[in-house]
Structures are given as C-alpha cells and as structure tokens.
Amino acid sequence: MSRSFIAIVLFSFMAIAQAVALVKDDNISNIKVTITTPNKTSQWLAGTTQSVEWVSSSNSNATAVVLLAAPILSGGNLVDLCIIRLLKMSVPVSAGKVDVIVPNVTIGGPAKDFMIDFVVGGSQTTSKAFMIIGGTKRFTCP
Questions:
Q1: Model's pTM, two decimal places?
Q2: For every residue of the chain, which 3-state class applies, written as one string?
Q3: Which residues pair with 69 in a beta bridge?
C-alpha cells in the first residue's frame, strides 16, 4: 500500500470521527428519528443521487450527520456498524430529507448490505439494510 493511500484512509476516518464528535457534543436531548428511505427493498445504483428520508418528532434546529455503514451481525442480530463513508454533515433534522451521491462501493467479508446511520445529538438511528448495485471499489468490514 502506498503512503498516500494510507494517509487518505486515515484522514477519512479522522474526519468522520470529528464530525460524529461535533454532533454528539451538541448537548441536544434525544431526538427521535425514523428513517423511511432507504428501506429493505431499496437498490441504489452506485454514482447516482438518491434521497435519505426520515420523520422526526422534533422541530428543533438540530443538525445531523448521515453516514453509510455496513451491519455487523451475530446470529442474525445487529451488534455493531462498520462505518464506510461520511455522506453529509450539518443536515437539518427538520428537513426530513437529504440527497446523497451513492458511493462506488461494494462490500467484502461477511456483510452484504448497507445501512444509513443518522446521528443527531446523543441519538443514533439506522435504516433498514439495503443494496448498492454497480459498485466496484471493494470495502471489507471486520
């Protein structure tokens, strides 16, 4: 692996960690969010623009971070998430929708599906597992 590739990967993970830390430090009480799109029947084509949609019980000015993740399962149950990519930062929770560009990724290892991880304040919500088709850059979760 080249040094520049390693530097890019480290920078990406640091940026995601900082974004999540900023949102979690917002001192916002738990805001209830339910992701409606994507859902378990969604198939997103890599490189296209798709919408992440949600409903929320809050009309606050809170903002969220939207991440692409892969589920880590044990015995068929979700036990953790493997964060793959930051999709959007500073998304107003009250908007109910944000457009994202679907990354050109495919999953290796035991994970086969993707999830949206929506982080706002001290709350984290995940979508149902969905598929990304046409991705060519392999990403392996532990």
A1: 0.78
A2: CCHHHHHHHHHHHHHHHHHHHHHHCCCCCCCCEEEEECCCCCEEECCCEEEEEEEECCCCCCEEEEEEEEEEEECCEEEEEEEEEEEEEEEEHHHCEEEEECCCEEEECCCCCEEEEEEECCEEEECCCEEEECCCEEEECC
A3: 83, 115
Q: How many CB atoms lie within 10 A of CB 88?
A: 17
- Relative to beta strand 123-126, strand 115-120 is antiparallel
pLDDT tens digit string along 52-81?
999 998 767 889 999 999 988 888 888 899
CB 43 within 8 A of CB 62: no
Burial 23-43 (b: 16+ CB within 10 A, else e): bbeeebeebebebeebeeebe
Q: Are 64 and 118 in contact (CB under 8 A)?
A: yes
